[in-house]
């Protein structure tokens, strides 16, 4: 196993960062990253002579080697110090000092190491903070933020993952975020969108987005300056256990379709995300359930009339947005019925001109829709005789 390789050479190897946080929280980490005192060159030599496959990904210049073992990728990064940072990228220098490596990490809960013997190395009280569900920057908040302004959004993301209740922030942290909010203007839209999506699906999202407005962050990450926070509060309640898409939650902030376009210009969201946003802005008000015995009918009619492929999933997101849990379950079980009559059937009945066939099909489709899509081929064709 590869820990033995490190041991033989007297290189230290420990689990690092997020994986330690997850293990201590009793969660299974998604991927386990390791940190080591060995340099990339030393690791390459050691792995190559032991016949371990290395995967070339461009991490090497900031110290990361990826080894492939037992059908799994392991990322192992040399301990390092950030020498120069410009708010986006860092130039690094390797070190063998574990505390120095912990010092350049963003949050205390992400700055711990775990020896393979189970020994915890925790220089910044991360374990205490994790137990107390506290999110804090390592050292001075403003320094950490200025190294990479995206850390402002990482603060929010981990707050939404770990903190027990909204509003439990250190005043000087919020101050540091506010003073540095402008730095987010220089961060690429793609990086921001990755973080923002995770925030939108985490806890305390209503509190955190409100905070983005209070701390002057919203305008730098593509959100409308006058976001509709009342609607946002309502919709975040509506979608609580319905697994919405991030865009469904976010659209409640938007008042007009330009808000979606502006978000797209700043964050380069996917085409599907953009279309969902535009769809919700357009239909959230007038496409609602019917009074009476068939509340689903307006949604079903919309799907049946639609010429697009994924209307069904957009309607599901609309129902989540509106908080219609029961209707959502019903529409998820509903199969789109297929229209039972074809032009071929009409020809057999003696309708010959293409134009007449088109008109007749449309009339029958309308009758079929009025019947709640229940009429079968026979009923429809006998209906045609009446028409």
From TrEMBL:
The keyword RNA-binding applies. The keyword Translocase does not apply. Coiled coil: none annotated. CDD domains: NT_ClassII-CCAase (cd05398). Residues 170-221 form the tRNA nucleotidyltransferase/poly(A) polymerase RNA and SrmB- binding domain. InterPro entries: Bact_CCA-adding_enz_type3_sf, NT_sf, PolA_pol_head_dom, PolyA_RNA-bd. Residues 13-136 form the Poly A polymerase head domain. One of its GO terms (biological process) is tRNA 3'-terminal CCA addition. It holds the Pfam family PolyA_pol_RNAbd. Its cofactor is Mg(2+). One of its GO terms (cellular component) is mitochondrion. Keywords: Magnesium, Metal-binding, Nucleotide-binding, Nucleotidyltransferase, RNA-binding, Transferase, tRNA processing. One of its GO terms (molecular function) is metal ion binding. Belongs to the tRNA nucleotidyltransferase/poly(A) polymerase family. This is TRNT1 nucleotidyltransferase. The gene is Trnt1.
